[in-house]
Write a structure and sequence with these properties.
The chain has 2 domains: 34-126 and 134-146 and 235-277, Cyclophilin (Beta Barrel); 154-211. Helix 4 runs antiparallel to helix 5. The chain has helices at 3-25, 53-64, 153-178, 180-189, 192-211, 220-228, 249-256, and strands at residues 34-39, 42-48, 73-77, 81-84, 106-107, 122-125, 138-139, 143-146, 241-247, 272-277. Strand 3 (73-77) and strand 4 (81-84) form a beta hairpin. The radius of gyration is 24 Å and the shape is globular. By secondary structure, the chain is α+β, with helices and mostly antiparallel strands.
Length: 279
């Protein structure tokens, strides 16, 4: 073999080696991800769902970057949920309003109901409301973990009525957007009667659309979970659930039990020590 050919062979071998190394180091999607979330109130072992790969991979990425280390559970509501993931909460002064921070991007919705639902221990992504976020995109970092409560048949009826009210609100915002220009013109012209007539027309249109929608009910298999384990069924089909606490449910209860003040922020800082990817 000539020197020139030998050099070419070394060159191609180095390229092949580099490709192999890059492939090995490439951030391939992880499946069956388990996390350990260490908090000031105890540890929780969390499973991320493969059915929500974008949320799974985003959470893993942030955890591996140490993004969640030292962040607070800045919003805590007993018998509802505990919320964290706001980078502005790190070292935040007492009384500071929190909940608007993030990594500068959103994650597309991966709502997979009824397969994934808001049982106790569910990990879900926080987001802004439908009026400003009709695509229901998730916060890039803020999450909540469900505590909730158990329900009986009367509770389920109340939740199903709430489903109807939420659907009515969604139709209202959508219909309002369709007539927005007309309403603004009437308001600017000072034509109050025509403006109010248009509002009545919009309300009638909303009710008509609602009557053509099938009634949303809670599946029987989910009712059994909500009767025994508990959760927050009225959030179902509205937010992306992307994991669950498989060990350490008592830690959720300990955090949810702390005293809170303005904007449901705990008086005593409850924080994430770190989030470790176990596999």
């Amino acid at each position: 073999m000539t020197t020139n050919n030998s050099n070419k062979m070394k060159y191609f071998l180095s390229i092949a080696t580099a490709i192999i190394l890059l492939s090995a180091c490439n951030t391939q999607p992880k499946e069956g991800v388990m996390l350990l979330m260490e908090t000031s109130k105890g540890d929780m072992k969390i499973k991320l769902y493969d059915e929500t790969p974008q949320h799974r991979d985003n959470f893993v990425k942030l955890a591996e970057q140490g993004f969640y280390d030292s962040l607070l559970f800045h919003r805590v509501i007993n018998e509802f949920m505990i919320q964290g993931g706001d980078p502005e909460s790190k070292g935040a002064q007492a009384g500071k309003m929190l909940g608007n921070g993030g990594p500068g991007y959103q994650v597309p919705a991966e709502i997979n109901y009824p397969a994934l639902f808001h049982k106790k221990g569910a990990l879900a992504a926080a987001r802004t409301g439908d009026n400003v976020n009709p695509e229901r995109k998730s916060s890039g970092s803020q999450f909540y973990i469900v505590q909730g409560k158990t329900y009986n048949d009367e509770g389920f009826k109340s939740i199903e009525k709430r489903y109807e009210d939420m659907k009515r609100q969604q139709f209202f915002y959508k219909t309002l957007e369709e007539y927005k220009d007309t309403l603004q013109s009437l308001q600017q012209a000072g034509n109050q009667k025509a403006f109010m007539d248009m509002r009545i027309l919009i309300e009638e249109e909303v009710e008509k659309r609602l009557s053509n929608e099938p009634k949303q009910t809670i599946p029987d298999e989910l009712k059994e979970v909500y009767r025994t384990i508990g959760g927050v069924p009225h959030l179902d089909d509205n937010y992306t659930v992307f994991g669950e606490v498989v060990e350490g449910l008592e830690v959720i209860d300990a955090i949810a039990a702390v005293e809170t003040g303005q904007a449901d922020r705990p008086h005593e800082d409850v924080y994430i020590i770190k989030v470790e990817v176990l596999n």
